[in-house]
Design brief:
With about 260 residues, the protein is α/β, with parallel strands linked by helices. It has nine helices and 14 strands. Helices cover about 40% and strands about 20% of the residues. A hairpin with a 5-residue loop joins β13 and β14. α2 packs across α5 and α4 crosses α5. About 0% of the residues have low confidence.
Length: about 260
């Protein structure tokens, strides 16, 4: 299962596989989509660890004593307050290291004895490569679709590198060109409103099912489906990766509706 996950992540652009020639060992680096995933993980960590807290928490990089003194004065020498120590991590792993990460992520710890103590300092350590690999392994799924296994990444919608994609189908080259222009216009609107959107003009050459498969493999939560009807009445279909169901949305309301989807989740 782990090998299939790593191979799929490599083919999907989340990892880059190289070989260390001197040792003949496989080495994985974070790929282009993996970097986007790491950025989203870091953003959510920042929000939940620093911003969305009842107590004051400040980040630190390097000398923690100086940061501690500053936060202590900032909080009028009163506990509780928090400090997160940001450390730079390497962005490559060997196969053995990934296996070790995988084991640690699934291994439980047992307490030999119970003690009731008053905590003065609580330290929690975790690093981005570990979270990244855990996210990859946790998101990889192999659902059966039309009697065939369709591997995909099922990322949480806030962690997915791309939130939205476009699928188009037209009966002629002229109509397809109009749909591509509309998709590009909507894509620019979504990106201007900070919605990470994937637009691939060449995808219109494929069938809708082939387009769905490609976007599901990348873990994109929603796909906007444009067809000839969209050009006539402005109605587009918004397909969910999780349910494969579609709902109708007018193109003039698409940006607002998508923003609401991600804001309320």
């Amino acid at each position: 299962m782990l090998k299939r996950t790593l191979d799929f992540a490599t083919n999907s652009g989340f990892l880059k596989k190289t070989v260390l020639p001197k040792y003949n060992i496989d080495q994985f680096k974070i790929g282009p989509l993996g970097l986007l995933l790491c950025q989203n993980i870091n953003t959510e960590w920042l929000y939940h660890t620093l911003i969305n807290k009842e107590l004051t928490v400040c980040p630190n990089e390097g000398d923690i004593d100086n940061t501690y003194d500053f936060v202590k004065i900032l909080c009028s020498n009163k506990l509780p307050f928090g400090i997160t120590d940001v450390k730079r991590q390497k962005k490559s792993f060997t196969t053995d290291e990934i296996v070790e990460y995988y084991k640690n992520a699934t291994k439980g710890e047992r307490f030999k004895e119970r003690k009731f103590v008053t905590a003065h300092t609580i330290t929690s350590q975790i690093n981005l490569p570990t979270i990244f690999l855990n996210a990859i392994c946790d998101a990889y799924q192999e659902p059966v679709f039309q009697d065939n296994v369709r591997p995909m990444f099922h990322f949480h919608r806030k962690l997915a590198p791309f939130k939205l994609s476009f699928a188009m189908t037209g009966s002629s080259q002229a109509i397809t060109k109009e749909l591509e222009d509309l998709a590009l216009y909507l894509c620019k609107q979504l990106r201007a409103n900070h919605v990470s959107t994937l637009y691939l003009p060449s995808s219109s050459r494929n069938t809708l099912e082939a387009q769905y498969k490609q976007y599901d493999q990348l873990g994109i939560p929603y796909t906007v489906v444009l067809n000839e009807r969209t050009l006539n009445d402005g109605i587009a279909n918004l397909r969910s990766r999780d349910t494969t169901l579609k709902e109708q949305v007018h193109v003039t309301e698409l940006v607002t509706y998508v923003e609401q989807l991600f804001r309320n989740y």
